[in-house]
Amino acid sequence: MLKYIVSLLTRKRQFAKNEIEYGKSFMFDVYTIVLVFLLLCNVLINALFLDQYISASVFGGMAVLMFSTLLWPDSIRFNKKLLTGFFFLLGLVVFFCDGTAGKGCMNYLSYISLTIAVAFIFDFSTDKIRIIFLILSYVLFFLINILSDYSLFSDYWLHLSLVKQFYVRVYKVIEVVCCTFVGIYFISKDKVEIREYYIEKERLDNLLKKTDKINFSGELYELAMSKNSLFITYFKSEFPDFFENILRVAPNLVSSELEICALLKLNLSTKEIAVATNSTVSSVKNKKYRIRKKLNISPETDIVLYIINTF
Question: pTM for this one?
């Protein structure tokens, strides 16, 4: 099963259009797997420790459903309305479980896990209304149970013993810790990407101090940086054999990757390439990674110097 999950995530990298799309899909996959794990923990707790077999069956069905979303197209998984409804539904589930188990079980800690997930799944710059709505909903659910002294679902109280309440609290700690570590991982991942960008920028700056840029007309550079459609035409006139030679080595390079190769031939930095292709630094890094694989360039080899000197 683990091998299948790894292969599935690997295939997603291959088919992703760019690094942003892959990063977003990867984040969804990680949270999905974490949520499946937590739901399975719920199944075990309800079946083995709480003797709540109906609840165990419900959580088991939710785990299967969540795992199946790994196979859904990203166009559905990234739908903001569906995501908002999904997280609101999860809040209602926590609200009900918290109300039936009682405050001694501390089920309300799940609101922390949901808030962490919302913070990473949604973009605050474009989804602030959705984020505020969901977080206020969680706060409202929490306050309703607190202010009503957990009497709202009195007909469905589980009447758990102190020992069983302890088991639930242990699970809640595991849940919050897992979600927190996932959040820390993505924060660290973003910091690493930013650090790598500045390291590469410094490396290219040092390279330019030692060697001049490859000789090419200022007009060609301006065409590239202004995203002019005539850039490739002018590039071919100045380097007539470039594309033929590079396709001879890697015939599976696609047009967008060939454009990156042309810009690398001009010794442009990753940031400049991002501007020239109207994309992000992360997207350019991802394409350079694919180009490196297709050209079979070793990790120790500088891809810029390799393309300049080889083609």
Answer: 0.57
